[in-house]
Specification:
Radius of gyration: 17 Å
Number of strands: 10
Number of domains: 1
Helix content: 10-25%
Amino acid sequence: MGKQYDVITDRLRTFITSQPVYFVATAPESGGHVNVSPKGYADTFAVLDDTTVAYLDLDGSGVETISHLRDNGRVTLMFAAFSGPPNIVRLYGTGTVVTPRDAGFDDLLKNFGPHPAVRSVIVVRCDRISDSCGYAVPFMEFEQDRTLLDQHHELDSSKKRQAERSGAPRNSIDGLFGLHAGETDPANRRS
């Protein structure tokens, strides 16, 4: 049976910060495509306080999450136990995109491990925190993080593409505004 919480308890904090993968879901205000993104690298997620979490947004192929958050702010993060006792935790809330131009960006970066190609930090203020059984989630073993994304971002060819992308406006696949030209600098920004 699921339960709702007013805050991220110590038990929930321990659970969500120990998961090697979690999922971020967003959708545009009307029409368009729902987006679900898997996230890894445990040191790219942080619990900031009892109702606020953040994750490091590394440069990637699209800007769906950023576009949706700027459209309506709605976001859900889901953590599922693939080992140990069954559990699913969902954090529902309002997400904010914090770019290097924004106040507080450098302070937020201190919550994360070292990674290249930092585009932004996504901060989520949770208005609903819940868990449920997860009885049907399969057991899976975590071997190790894939280091391919960080390695890829260190390549000169990747840095060139990052610079080209950040030098132009970026929109979602549905044409929603994502990033202004020059708003981020993932080719040169590290955490």
